[in-house]
Amino acid sequence: MAVAAVPPDDGGTGTEAGVGARTGAGAHRTLSERSTAMREFLVEITTTIPEGTPQEEVDRRRAAEAVHAKELAASGRLARLWRPVGELRSVGIWLADDEDDLRRTVLGTLPLSSWMTFVITPLESHPNDPGRADGAS
Fold first, then answer.
1. Residue 68 lies in a domain
2. What CATH number does the domain containing 82 carry?
3. Is residue 61 part of a domain?
4. Domain count, the chain
5. CA–CA dist 100, 64 (Å, integer)
6. In which domain, by residue range, is 47 found?
7. Model-level pTM?
8. In sequence order, which residues have a C-beta less than 8 Å from that of residue 58 and are 6 or more positions away?
9. pLDDT tens, 39-92?
10. Which residues of 3-20 are buried (b: 16+ CB within 10 A; e: fewer)?
11. How buried is residue 24: exposed, middle or buried, by Cβ count under 10 Å (0-12/13-18/19+)?
C-alpha cells in the first residue's frame, strides 16, 4: 500500500509547528513546574495518509487534530511541538505518567493517530539544564 505524507499546512499535530508555543495558562512555567508527577517524553511523529483516502476524511481529521492538540497543550500534556525544516514530521515534548499512559491516553487520542508512527524517548533532567526547576546547574 502506498502512502503519502501529510503536507506542511495540515494544521494537525503531525506537522503543526506552533501548537506547543508558550501561550495560555502555564505559559511561563518550566516543563518541570507544569507537572512534578508526570514524566517528559521526546516524541517524533511521522504521519502518512493511506493511499485512496478521500480528501474530505483527511480534512476532517486535520481539523479535529488541531483542536485536540490545543486541548492537550492546555491540559499540560503537550508542552512544545516543532517541525524540522523541510521535513513532513514533528518533534515534540509530551508529558505523561509513563510511556503506557502516553501511548494510551495522550497519543492514542489523536484523530490522526492511526496514520501516525511514534518514536518515543523518555527524558530526564540534565545537571546542566538552564531550565531546571530546582535552579541547580
1. yes
2. 3.30.70.1060
3. yes
4. 1
5. 23
6. 3-22+30-123
7. 0.72
8. 6, 49
9. 999 999 999 999 999 999 999 999 999 999 999 999 999 999 999 998 889 999
10. eeebeeebbbbbbbeebb
11. exposed
